[in-house]
Amino acid sequence: MSKKQGVLLCNLGTPDAPTSQAVRKYLFQFLHDKRVVSIPRMIWCPILHGIILRTRPPKVAKLYQSIWTDKGSPLMVYSQAQRMELQNKLDNSVEIYDSQSYVPIELAMCYGNPSIPKALESLESQGCERIIVLPLYPQYSSATNAAIFDQISKFYKKRFFVPELTYVNGYHKHSLYIKGLADSVKAYWKDNGQAQKLLFSYHGVPKRFSKKGDPYEQQCHETTQLVVKELGLNKEQYQTAFQSRFGREEWIKPYTDATLEDWGKNGVSSVQVISPAFASDCLETLEELAVENRDIFITAGGKEYGYIPALNDSPIHIELLFDLLQNQLN
């Protein structure tokens, strides 16, 4: 008899509420991860506890309040929809439906709730002996994918039984992913017209990551090139850039905000922005990209600015995730 299988669907995380207290709790966990901030603890902890966790939560909470929905955090809402629709698609693909063929999908967040340990406990309680880990990160980075691996390893460190684990390491060149991105741009163009420039804005990471072998930067550029080919754009019509940097350290360039400011000052009148690294819309897309960076571009002299939503729970995104699982399930 084949092993009972389960799926761990992972994303980064979100506060439980748009309040200072909830944001502080979330940032405490997020910024304590050495995969996220690798500064020596003797230096970093006094900064984190003495300054950041005292000053940042009220400011960040206000930003979350600006995007929060009646159903909760957009990232959580979309992630739950992805899990539910993927579960339905997986269930409907089984010819003989019984307890052994049923493949449960548990949603987990690397930081916040539902936590990875809780999700693994749920899969364990359902008798799963083989788990497929599917991080919702198209491009691999040690700051994201490896952080999930660390938490899973920590969970099983004290367990007497460790299930067979299969890890999906990314999908930045998958044909359905590229088609989904290209189709979303085309649909936006159909409704809004095509802008002078299309900006591919990915979440940034420190420059030293690339120097140490992290493939994230290269994979971002590869994704852009494949989408650009699908859209038929020339090199004057698009740009890849990186957002969300913090601290004084150099991050991979060019920076999204600096690029938009430069374009606005130098006669670019219209821009549309897509952020392929995000499987779900969240604070970094709905506030930072759609609002903050729009203001930067318009203030610098730009005229029209549009944000193209993430793939979220679109049918082609669910089809992509289903295909990734089908390639791994026995």
Q: What is shown here, in short?
A:
This protein is α/β, with parallel strands linked by helices. Helices cover 48% and strands 15% of the residues. It has 2 domains: 5-171 and 315-326, Rossmann fold (3-Layer(aba) Sandwich), CATH 3.40.50.1400; 175-308, Rossmann fold.
Defining key terms:
four-stranded parallel sheet, alpha/beta, single chain, Rossmann fold, globular, 330 residues, 2 domains, 8 strands
How would you explain this protein's 3D organization?
The chain is globular and about 60 Å long. Strand 3 (130-135), helix 5 (145-156) and strand 4 form a beta-alpha-beta unit. The strands form 2 sheets. A 4-stranded parallel beta sheet has the order 2-1-3-4, sandwiched between helices. The mean pLDDT is 96. The protein is α/β, with parallel strands linked by helices. The protein has 2 domains: 5-171 and 315-326, Rossmann fold, CATH 3.40.50; 175-308, Rossmann fold. It is 48% helix and 15% strand. The chain is built from 11 helices and 8 strands. It has helices at 20-32, 41-67, 74-92, 116-125, 145-156, 175-192, 207-211, 216-231, 256-265, 283-299, 315-326, and strands spanning 5-14, 105-112, 130-135, 164-167, 197-203, 238-243, 270-274, 304-308.
